[in-house]
Amino acid sequence: MSYKNIAHQKQLQLEAQIPPQWRLNASQIPPGLLSPADSITNTGQYEAINVLEIPRICGLLTPEELHITEQYDIRSLLDAIRERKFTSKEVVEAFCKVNDLVPCSHLPVSLTSHSQRAAIAQQLTRCLTEPVFEQALRQAQKLDDHLQRTGAPIGPLHGLPVSVKDSFHLAGVDSTTGLAALASRPAAHSSPLVHLLTSLGAIIIAKTNVPQTMAALDSCNHLFGRTLNPLNRRLTVGGSTGGEAALLAMRGSMVGFGTDIGGSIRIPAMCTGLYGFKPSAGRVPIAGTQDAGSMAGKGRVSLQPVAGPLARSVADLGTVMAEIVPRAELFSEDGIPGVWSGSRISYAPSVRGGAAGVTQPPSFGERQVLTIGVLRGDGLVEPLPPIAKVLDEVAQLLRHTPGVRVVEVPVPPALSKCQGIAGRLMGVDGANPMMDLLEATEEPLIPWLRGRMKRGRELTLAQVGALQAQRAQLEREMLAMWRTRSTTATAGWARDIDAIIHPVAPHPVPELDRYNAVGYTSSWVLLDYPAGTIPVRAFREDDLELGKEMTAPVLGSWDKANRLLWNQKTVDRRVYLGSPLSVQVITPTQHDYELYQAMELIDRAVRGEARVSAML
């Protein structure tokens, strides 16, 4: 079959999951929600509309339902289920109602909200690929039976609604990764992460949309169309975990899991104002996922992707990571032994010994002061003015945070080489397996991939070995980034920078198909440094700097392309108004818990400033 016929069948299957009584009125859907095929090419018809308010005004949700969906975080939802305020089955029945599987008149009003959120999110953003409500209903019944029989939850995430990226396998369900050739090939087994989550009591409710081949930074494909950014439909939702980001932003799931090799968790989080967490390799199982037809074991010899969560708060990230990290080694061959613990950071001075009334700064591990470095660029692409501005704002907030020392980190010469090595390792197979799948159904490349993907030569073992040797040299050189002084106590150097803040991208959230520089995220995968995204604030009028252009010398072709996103001859800067501005937080490899601690501290500093601004 041709890709068009395959796509038509998949779209009919997905559309059938939302019965007529759960559909928005045509007047409630902003103009430009094009057919899946048109959504890929006719992007100029999208208006700069924020659709997050539609669930509140569409009439499908009662005030009680709105309160439930907008006030619960993961911990409070889990507590409510354990306290039997409602059952897991009741929650999942709400999702099944969307699938029209059971009569819904008997369901408590407060439990139907997530189902309506997911239905609304799909109609406004095209974020879903595979709803699995019937399977979730059966799992929820088992959880309730266990709780009724034993009086105890089946696991620490008992009843938690979770969504996963399309690349994760669910037994009996497709994992197309946006390729028509992989449709109607249901997985025989679920991925290890899915087994881990369900063992903890979580309930998988849906799989979410990705770019064609998962190798793009704009989430669109010919099977399901383009996933739209609910904050502004003229701006990209990012990729390749874009469907997760859209669903979470619309509050259609409590937490989502994606993968990251070039920035695929952190970039969608940046585009939608969410929190993303790219851990070190082995912390979250990624084995057993659909790799878009690449040669088997590619990640073992090239650049290894990692899996991680997206959520609406740092606390939600911590809640799920605390349960996954200690168990990863038990569920997957790629899992490593780990613990999720350490010294909590205090956020105000506290008395710690010494004379009465004398305050000491908070601790970070055994340190008395947390040192955060500011890394302003990557040596290849100069951040655009609003990106440099928001990074400096966060640095200033941290300078006024008790117990925090802020230092400038010069751009290491090795960092500018990381993007090139990462790109070559991603392409060790010459993209030939992906191109084979595309050509099998005569499927054309999506706009973002045109000019970026083509057949190439598969690298030889000697060539891959040489690349890995260069990678090892860069890893050695980058160690110096974490130290600012020598110590006589250790007769040498000691790491005294605990975390680094850095842009997620050198530009704001761009328009559809215009995402530019991936080096700000892919380099940290090459180095296996855990990294997370924190939303800071919205893009404001004073960020526009209308009439001013960048005057610094152009650094190269990547920098030249990046400046097109700011040049007033090639972009109307006002399109960025209201879009989220974020920062990236980075720690050394395997310091994942420290990344969580640093993100928590930085997020509190940012939100404290936001509260002051609101009061003024």
From TrEMBL:
GO terms for molecular function: hydrolase activity. InterPro entries: Amidase_dom, AS_sf. Signal peptide: none annotated. Pfam families: Amidase. Coiled coil: none annotated. The active site is at residues 165, 240, 264. SUPFAM superfamilies: Amidase signature (AS) enzymes (SSF75304). Belongs to the amidase family. This is Fatty-acid amide hydrolase.
